[in-house]
Design a protein that fits this description.
The complex is a heterodimer of chains A (114) and B (152).
Chain A lengths: L2 E8 L2 E10 L3 H15 L4 E12 L1 H16 L3 E5 L3 H9 L7 E3 L2 H7 L2
Parallel strand pairs in A: 2-3, 3-4, 4-5
Antiparallel strand pairs in A: 1-2
Helix pairs in contact in A: 1-2
Chain B lengths: L5 E8 L3 H17 L3 H22 L7 E8 L3 E7 L26 H8 L2 E6 L5 E8 L2 E3 L5 E3 L1
The chains are: A alpha/beta (114), B alpha+beta (152).
Chain lengths: 114, 152
């Protein structure tokens, strides 16, 4: 399965529930378009729920980084929620754990936005 | 008699679809060889990154060029080679993705991930000038009570 995302809002925070794989091609493209659309609609607080994303490759990592810098570029915040073991391990070995704000609980994540 | 090394050669088109195809071929071979689930995943990911590298940087999306993938499965290890028809590259020229100044780059992690997921990683200049990535994963063996070597 490629990547699918469903957006919802809680207050001024946009949450995207992704499922599938963030990989070169369609998966990465879905992530990119989804975040871009949220920004275009004025969202500046974005939480990406990756609980159902079991696979990410270097292209997917690149898109996550790109999304993060894009949101930051409009003075927004982007956080990640509930990483699966494999995604967690990749973000850890690539030191991106020091870049992204990764949360394990949705309520705590929502409260952490400024 | 010592088990023979089996060799499988696959010629891939320079297409996005070849990335998934190469990964699934190698994962099936790795499963059949007796690698555990985590190692099958790591091998698949490493080969995926290798073919992405060949597709993006080696062959630069040129449909006229091919990617040659060779899998050698021996009693001790699996060696996957990914050869493109590009201009080759030097490993020393690849920036360190873990360096602070590179963390927010959107590309450049493929080589690092291949090294992280495989037991050995090397790059050679291919016979036609392209880059040949050589990815090696060692098979873990267990010795049974009667001393015969078996795969775990």
């Amino acid at each position: 399965m490629s990547l699918q995302g469903t957006s919802r809002e809680i207050g001024d925070i946009a949450i995207v529930d992704f499922s599938g794989k963030i990989t070169l091609g369609e998966g990465s493209s879905v992530l990119r378009k989804t975040v871009r659309e949220l920004i275009d609609r004025g969202h500046r607080k974005i939480l990406l729920n990756l609980a159902d994303v079991d696979y990410i490759d270097s292209s997917g990592i690149g898109e996550l980084v790109s999304a993060y810098t894009t949101v930051r570029g409009v003075s927004g915040e982007m956080k990640l929620l509930q990483l699966t073991r494999r995604v967690h391990d990749i973000l850890q070995i690539t030191r991106l754990f020091t870049v992204f704000d990764v949360q394990s609980d949705e309520e705590v994540a929502l409260r952490s936005f400024q | 008699m010592a088990p023979a090394t089996q060799r499988i050669e696959v010629t891939l088109e320079t297409l996005l679809e070849s990335v998934d195809l190469a990964e699934s071929i190698v994962m099936r071979i790795a499963e059949a060889a007796g690698f555990d689930e985590d190692d099958v995943h790591r091998i698949g990911m490493a080969v995926r990154e290798g073919v992405i590298n060949a597709y993006n940087y080696g062959n630069q999306h040129d449909r006229r060029k091919k990617i040659l993938m060779t899998v050698e499965l021996g009693p001790e290890k699996m060696v996957v080679r990914v050869l493109d028809q590009g201009k080759g590259f030097e490993l020393t020229e690849v920036p360190d993705p873990l360096a602070e100044e590179n963390l927010l780059r959107t590309s450049g992690r493929g080589i690092f991930l291949m090294r992280a997921f495989m037991d050995e990683f090397a790059v050679k200049h291919g016979p036609g000038g392209g880059a040949e990535l050589i990815l090696t994963k060692n098979l873990r063996h267990a010795v049974s009570d009667n001393g015969r070597r078996q795969r775990e």
